[in-house]
Amino acid sequence: MSGSNSSVSRISIELVINGVDILPAQLVRHLSPLTIRKIINSMPISGILHKFGDSFIYFQTDIKMGSEKSIGQFKKGDIAFSPQSSIFCIFLRDSITAQKFNLVGHMISSNLDILSSIKMGDQMTLRKSEIF
């Protein structure tokens, strides 16, 4: 994959908010390989954004997946999938959750202000990176 910003273990993706803001992120295959395969095969994935307090933003998906290396402690910028509720989450701050999530990757941009300022009802699309 010469010239690509993806590798076998790290897959470059983009989070597109309202079709305007594009934020780079990475899926890291060894964190949850089965979940990541399902996510990649389902792309692009779109949904209406919601906030869970100031901990994370999320949107509902149609992906059905069981628990895989599930954890309950996350760092700012972590990306996770909830097998219980089929939601895709991006953590806005370091968090400990009662529910376990499959950690799948992290944001590349250190500027998460765009995510913190989303409004209920904004739309997010998760897609493979178009930058090669």
Structure summarized in a few sentences:
The chain has 132 residues and is mainly beta.
Elements, N to C (H/E) = EEHEEEEEEEHE
Shape: globular
The Cα radius of gyration reads 14 Å
The residue ranges in which pLDDT falls below 50 over 5 or more consecutive positions are 1-5
Largest sheet: 10 strands, antiparallel
* Number of DSSP-assigned strands: 10
Give the overall pLDDT as a whole number: 89
Oligomer: single chain
**Could you estimate the helical fraction of the residues in percent?**
10-25%
Explain this structure to me?
It is a single chain. It contains two helices and ten strands; from the N terminus they run ββαβββββββαβ. Helix content is about 10%, strand content about 45%. It has helices spanning about 35-40, 115; strands spanning about 10-15, 20-30, 45-50, 50, 55-60, 70-75, 80, 85-90, 95-105, 125-130. A hairpin with a 4-residue loop joins strand 7 and strand 8. By secondary structure, the protein is mainly beta. Strands 1, 2, 3, 4, 5, 6, 7, 8, 9 and 10 form a ten-stranded antiparallel sheet that branches. The radius of gyration is 14 Å and the shape is globular.
